[in-house]
């Protein structure tokens, strides 16, 4: 019997710093095949005031950003959690990556976002890509506030959803692009709706989803 391909997950927020990286770290420790991205034009982190953010290019290593903030004001950035967050990030991967530039990273089965604006950017980007393989991807959004505490909660909920047996049993039929579940005859939209409704009732969190094709 042919071994089932391991599903691939992408966690996406605006700057690939907090929410997506907390989820990336947690799903990775759980043994899932996961990557993470941001959708912004630049990586933005809080600065000494609302009008003075710290702005970096995607691809700037987390340890470089860590050293820069520690040089600027170590007390401030330790107190607001940025230095511990960046130290965590360095243990997960090298640098923040931009979703719109990820075509070379391969295909993802489930793309999970933590903000409606990010979700919309992912959907638009996927629909604007040339669709060659008719390989489908499920895009799910759950709004999560961009702070360290909520990022931890959102990561646990993302892990719970990504570990749902019905989601992990998902097959992508080559050449057709339809989602089927083993032993299930229902339409794929009804199956996903049932999965999401069950999750929403259990966790009191609203989810939205869309389907896209590679």
UniProtKB/TrEMBL annotation:
It holds the Pfam family Ssu72. It comes from the Eukaryota. It catalyses: O-phospho-L-seryl-[protein] + H2O = L-seryl-[protein] + phosphate; O-phospho-L-threonyl-[protein] + H2O = L-threonyl-[protein] + phosphate. Keywords: Hydrolase, mRNA processing, Nucleus, Protein phosphatase. The keyword NADP does not apply. It is an enzyme of class 3 (hydrolase). GO terms for cellular component: nucleus. Its EC number is 3.1.3.16. Gene3D superfamilies: 3.40.50.2300. GO terms for biological process: mRNA 3'-end processing. It is found in: Nucleus. GO terms for molecular function: RNA polymerase II CTD heptapeptide repeat phosphatase activity. Protein phosphatase that catalyzes the dephosphorylation of the C-terminal domain of RNA polymerase II. Plays a role in RNA processing and termination. Belongs to the SSU72 phosphatase family. This is RNA polymerase II subunit A C-terminal domain phosphatase SSU72. It comes from Oryza sativa subsp. indica.
